[in-house]
Amino acid sequence: ENLEVNGDVTYGLTTKRELASLPFAISRANVASDVQDAKNPRLFVNSIQDGDGNELTWVKRGGYDGLVIFPKPVPVNTKMTLRMRFTSLDSIRKVNPSFTAMDRGGWLPFVRFADFIDTFDLTVRTPDRFTVLGVGKKLSDDAADGIRTTRWTAEKPVAFPTIIFGDYLSAVSDHVVKKSDGTPIPVIVTVFSDRTFE
């Protein structure tokens, strides 16, 4: 099974200082030496564009990071948009037959783990056998042609829009939890399936 991450991510951000360049990183589980990575690259940045669709210059700094170079310095307090399309062949690793891990702290290129994101609208596509779990609110969950597509948003800022997926079993808890106004809060218990061992 080919375990790759394909990203098409659009960011809206406001500069806190003047920027001539902006670093990015896409975490990878198995980063080879720079020489091996040059001979057999596993991270491909297909495009970085500004909000008008203009291609931006970028340079690779290592096996998992790079630097976007702006045509002219971007002033402080500038609202800007960046769109990045990439493929990473080493961001997901198979830990054992029933568990595959993706580094939750670094698959969004311009976001560090502790950064607060005010809003997000995230669409995730996985093989349809997987259940997708995430922070925020799940707006949709559809499966067709072997692909499961889920869409997520958040009603308040989050430190990182974590998404996990796998072959899970779920059940609604018998324990009833309610908000202060009496509205029930669904409690769902989710565990890894052992179907991969059958």
Short synopsis of the structure:
This protein has 198 residues and is mainly beta.
Helix content: under 10%
Tell me the total number of β-strands. 17
User: Which strand-content bin applies to the residues?
Assistant: over 45%
Q: H/E element string? A: EEHEEEEEEEEEEEEEEE
Strand order of the largest sheet: 1-6-3
Please state the structural category: mainly beta
Q: What is the straight-line distance between the termini? A: 18 Å
User: What general form does the structure show?
Assistant: globular
Rg calculated over all Cα atoms = 19 Å
Major beta-sheet overview:
3 strands, antiparallel
Q: What is the multimeric organization of the chains shown?
A: single chain
**Would you identify the regions where 5 or more consecutive residues have pLDDT less than 50?**
none
Total of helices: 1
Q: Summarize model confidence as the mean pLDDT.
A: 83
Word description of this protein:
With 198 residues, the chain is mainly beta. 3% of the residues lie in helices and 52% in strands. It has 1 helix and 17 strands. The chain has one helix at 34-39, and strands spanning 5-14, 19-25, 43-50, 57-60, 65-74, 79-88, 92-96, 99-102, 121-127, 131-134, 137-144, 147-153, 163-166, 168-172, 177-178, 184-185, 188-192. It has a 3-stranded antiparallel sheet, with no helix packed on it. A 3-stranded antiparallel sheet has the order 2-5-4, with no helix packed on it. The protein has a 3-stranded antiparallel sheet with strand order 9-12-11, with no helix packed on it. Strand 11 and strand 12 form a beta hairpin. The radius of gyration is 19 Å and the shape is globular. The relative contact order is 0.18.
